[in-house]
Amino acid sequence: MPLRDRVRFDRNEFSGAFGDLGTDFPLIVGMILIGGLDAASVLVLFGAMQILTGVTYGLPMPVQPLKAMAVIVITQRVSGEVLAGGGLAIGIGMLLLSVTGLIDVLARAVPRSVIRGIQLGLGLQLATLALKDYVPADGAPGYALAGVSFVIAIALLGNRRFPPAPLLIALGVVYAFALKLDGAELAGAAGFALPRVQSVTWDAIATGAILLALPQIPLSLGNSILATRQVVSDLFPARAQDVTVRKISFTYAVMNLISPWFGGIPTCHGSGGIAGHHAFGARSGGSVVIYGIFFLGLGFFFSGGFQTAIQLFPRPVLGIILVFEAVALMRLIRDMLGSSRDFTVVLLTGLAAFTLPYGYVVALVVGTALAYLWRPANPRKSP
Prior knowledge:
mainly alpha
């Protein structure tokens, strides 16, 4: 397929570009403001990986912060060097899984019902985060903003002529200027900056592997690779043959073997992200290229005043975007409704991922065991 067809730029791609903003932006903000990471490095490298992925796949293949790592960095104040070491460690691990073909063995071993359960669990987590933390963030004005945003999203979701995300982003900007900042303040935050080149020691890689990579691996295998491959098959069936789990794990590895040397955060792909981009209109790699350019602009020109610039994106609007991303992801379990056994596995796996400590480990291992134990003796018979 020609590049111009795989990477398109139109209003729907622009709308779809921001379908994953509710997931990515708060984690990035937390790692910069609380974790103390260099804003220019984080933003520019995150944007560059979006563009690389959009061109490589020609699909709205998301690039997201590694969630488990991000939470540990924010809550435990892990140093940037150890974070870089963790990124390199998981990049090396994913590269080995890809080149040896072990990722294909894993993909064949995990039933689709378990993957659907992981998607359900992630969707529940995203929706809970949006409704509990994002929507109430600004009190009564925030609730009003979220309500108007919800009505706009409901009215325009799926509309190819007037896609909803640009209106939601514009509404958030108007709200920000009305209640939170002024033009002079934003202009004062502008200034040019470049990423910082950094070295990474073997000690940092070893520490990062234990502290950061190990907790991340189950979530990455379940959601970033297996579930992402399934969502590509669901939403882009004509392209599914070209997007294998080995390719997804390989690009996952490449991103994490590049970014740490320039101060970037560890990143992955994700089923929620591709569902979110698609829900808001994206159908090609152009959406994530646009998204990448957005982060490049923030990194190059607003990283010095990042704490001011982020007020342009009120959390209630991000929460509504996140709700629709979560719903788009959870809707994909409907193909399991025809089998009571499969749907039971989906529910149990999803609840485990949603509620339990190390829930994605439990979901992946226990869910797979249940799926095989409950497999009927004669697969041709309906349950």
